[in-house]
């Protein structure tokens, strides 16, 4: 009887160990190899600046309250409240100690596209790598080069304030297993080049769905409600539905949407408000063709 009990315990331990090993193998950080980032050629810094504005980097990483050129000092410090705790946005300036000045292109690219830090740890998806995974390697290379031209800051943001179990980074591997991929958010039949460009900007660099799409209890986007509107992740109000079936922009033409992104004014001469104010100011740096592409994509997605 005792031997049977010992065998049972040993089998149980073996199953737990094997299960843990399988879980780790499936959910371990998975950075792209150094060779992936080699031979991308000389970066286009001018394009990198456009990528920077499309990605909305200043909205989170500029110092709170920064205005004008001061926004280009990406010192971090913003506190992002969420149902999982408070995330403190890090310094991503070119400072070698407090920022990312020592990062290689591979380290930068793997943070952007794989959510993996230089030390190999999972990054929290409060940094929208779940969207940036769709960004091209060329644009990553160009963005990296542009960001190295920006001012340095020695500011060090405080650590995240996350309760158990959300403070366990290893668990993020499970989140990635469930939600992280680089597939299109929606499949659009017969999409022309203009719509495809808009899809790239909205689903990738612009990471619009991170706010405009509702999430489930684990923080994953609900794919069947893409861009259908969601509670404000910081707890105040709602983020509007921006599909063709919405009351917010459903009746707007493509030209209306593009003009709003460029000027901040709606067809009724209202203006962008809330967090959208800064988003609009960022994308206003983009060429008109990109704004028109975003508009074309938003008119092509499924109505909700």
What does the secondary structure layout of this molecule look like, with pairings?
Layout: H1 2-27, H2 45-54, H3 57-61, E1 79-82, E2 85-88, H4 105-114, H5 129-132, H6 137-147, H7 172-179, H8 193-205, H9 209-212, E3 230-231, E4 238-239, H10 254-263, H11 276-283, H12 288-300
Antiparallel strand pairs: 1-2, 3-4
Helix pairs in contact: 1-7, 2-6, 4-6, 8-12, 10-12
Task: Quickly describe the structure.
By secondary structure, the chain is mainly α. Helix content is 40%, strand content 4%. A hairpin with a 6-residue loop joins strand 3 (230-231) and strand 4.
What does this structure look like?
The termini are far apart. The radius of gyration is 21 Å and the shape is globular. The chain is mostly helical and 304 residues long. It is 40% helix and 4% strand. Strand 3 and strand 4 form a beta hairpin. It is built from twelve helices and four strands; from the N terminus they run αααββααααααββααα. The model has no long low-confidence stretch (mean pLDDT 90). The longest helix is centred in the first third of the chain and has 26 residues, at 2-27. The protein has a two-stranded antiparallel sheet with strand order 1-2. Strands 3-4 form a two-stranded antiparallel ribbon. It folds into two domains: 41-179, Cytochrome c-like domain (Cytochrome Bc1 Complex, Chain D, domain 2, Orthogonal Bundle), CATH 1.10.760.10; 193-300, Cytochrome Bc1 Complex, Chain D, domain 2 (Orthogonal Bundle). The chain has helices spanning 2-27, 45-54, 57-61, 105-114, 129-132, 137-147, 172-179, 193-205, 209-212, 254-263, 276-283, 288-300; strands spanning 79-82, 85-88, 230-231, 238-239. Helix 1 crosses helix 7 (172-179).
């Amino acid at each position: 009887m005792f031997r049977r009990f010992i065998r049972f315990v040993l089998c149980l331990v073996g199953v737990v160990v094997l299960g843990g090993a399988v879980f780790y193998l499936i959910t371990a950080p998975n950075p792209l190899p150094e060779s992936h980032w080699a031979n991308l050629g000389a970066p286009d810094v001018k394009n990198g600046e456009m990528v920077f504005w499309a990605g909305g980097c200043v909205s989170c990483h500029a110092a709170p309250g920064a205005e004008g050129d001061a926004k280009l000092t990406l010192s971090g410090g913003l506190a992002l409240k969420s149902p999982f705790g408070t995330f403190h946005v890090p310094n991503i300036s070119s400072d070698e100690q407090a920022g990312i000045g020592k990062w290689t292109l591979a380290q930068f690219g793997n943070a952007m596209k794989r959510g993996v830090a230089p030390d190999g740890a999972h990054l929290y998806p409060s940094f929208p790598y779940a969207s940036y995974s769709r960004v091209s390697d060329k644009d990553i290379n160009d963005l990296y080069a542009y960001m190295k031209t920006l001012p340095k800051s020695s500011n060090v943001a405080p650590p995240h304030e996350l309760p158990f179990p959300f403070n366990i980074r290893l668990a993020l591997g499970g989140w990635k297993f469930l939600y992280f991929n680089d597939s299109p958010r929606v499949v659009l039949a017969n999409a022309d080049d203009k719509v495809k460009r808009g899809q790239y900007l909205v689903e990738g660099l612009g990471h619009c769905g991170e706010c405009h799409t509702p999430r489930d209890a684990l923080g994953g986007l609900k794919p069947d409600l893409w861009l259908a509107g969601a509670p404000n992740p910081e707890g105040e109000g709602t983020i509007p539905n921006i599909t063709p079936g919405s009351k917010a922009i459903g009746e707007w033409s493509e030209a209306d949407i593009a003009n709003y992104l460029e000027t901040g004014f709606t067809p009724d001469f209202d203006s962008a408000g809330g967090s959208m104010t800064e988003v609009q100011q960022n994308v206003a740096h983009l060429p008109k063709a990109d704004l028109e592409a975003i508009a074309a994509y938003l008119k092509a997605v499924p109505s909700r």
